[in-house]
Design goal:
Helix content is 44%, strand content 18%. It is built from twelve helices and twelve strands. It is elongated, with a radius of gyration of 23 Å. The relative contact order is 0.15.
Length: 294
């Protein structure tokens, strides 16, 4: 089962990883480098260290962490002991790092920043998904991500067992309440979107009442986002959708989604539950780098 899940994980493009890590290292090393290590450690000193987790969770961000060490010194030796998407236990070693001591310490913070944030998102996503595992619903992320970090946030969501929503404004049409207000109505908005979109572009429209939902069903989008509806209202929408027969659409719920409410939302029969909590409110997972003294 683990191997099957692993094969479904996306692969972060090397260029994306390298550019992000380089920018992070430049930010940290500044104009003068690591003053502390340069002042206290011989340039020829070597060190052996381990990356280890201090709490249970889902590992994510290893490509970026390892790229940080290799960017400073390509000769650093890395022994990988766990992979992205793995469930890890407190005090578990996830990688061994050995090589030039200044290089190891210079990359430490950047490596851990990526690991802690991305593992935190993966872990929090898994907690949401586990609460609704008895349903067919899937937790999905939103565009509410740290600027410049979207691809990594969304990758972490996948590592946690969640689903990715659109990556930006350019890969799907999502007609929200403000679009509807400007263009004059649900039906008009969907009609214009259908005329504009290519055959590979999905069209989703957001509604916040059952009356709007009924209008949306007649208009024929691919997905309807049911915004800020309570579970009882969501269940009504699911029933209406079922009765629509061939006009039925994929249903997504959003608004007021939290670790406390996601189970009740999923049990209404909804297909997807989108929430910014998994990317914007996920606690970081505590990992550390420790020098091994022989």
């Amino acid at each position: 089962m683990r191997k099957q899940a692993e094969s479904l994980l996306p692969k972060l493009p090397n260029l994306l990883v390298e550019d992000a890590v380089r920018a992070a290292l430049l930010e940290d090393l500044g104009r003068a480098g690591d003053l502390t290590s340069d002042a206290t450690i011989s340039p020829d000193a070597t060190a052996q260290a381990v990356l280890a987790t201090r709490e249970d969770g889902i590992l994510c961000g290893m490509d970026l962490a390892l790229a940080a060490f290799r960017a400073i010194d390509p000769d650093i030796d890395i022994a990988l002991m766990a992979n992205d998407g793995d469930r890890i236990k407190a005090k578990q070693k996830v990688a061994g790092i050995s090589g030039n001591a200044r290089a190891v310490l210079g990359a430490e913070r950047v490596a851990l920043n990526y690991l802690m944030r991305m593992s935190g998102i993966a872990t929090y996503t898994a907690q949401f998904q586990e609460l609704i595992a008895h349903t067919s619903a899937k937790v999905t992320c939103t565009r509410k991500t740290v600027p410049g970090h979207r691809a990594f946030d969304k990758y972490a969501v996948k590592c946690g067992g969640g689903s990715n929503h659109r990556f930006g404004l350019d890969d799907a049409i999502l007609i929200k309440d403000n679009h509807i207000a400007v263009c004059g109505g649900v039906a008009t908005a969907v009609e214009r979107a259908r005329a504009f979109a290519g055959h590979l572009v999905k069209i989703e429209i957001e509604v916040d009442t059952l009356e709007q939902f009924e209008e949306a069903l007649k208009a024929g989008p691919d997905v309807v986002l049911l915004d800020n509806m309570n579970p009882a209202t969501l269940a009504e929408a699911v029933a209406m959708n079922r009765e629509a027969g061939t006009r039925a659409v994929v249903l997504e719920a959003s608004g007021n989604v939290s670790i406390d409410t996601v189970k009740a939302i999923a049990e209404t029969g909804i297909n997807y539950i989108s929430t910014s909590k998994i990317t914007m409110a996920a606690p970081t997972l505590d990992l550390g780098l420790d020098i091994e003294i022989s």
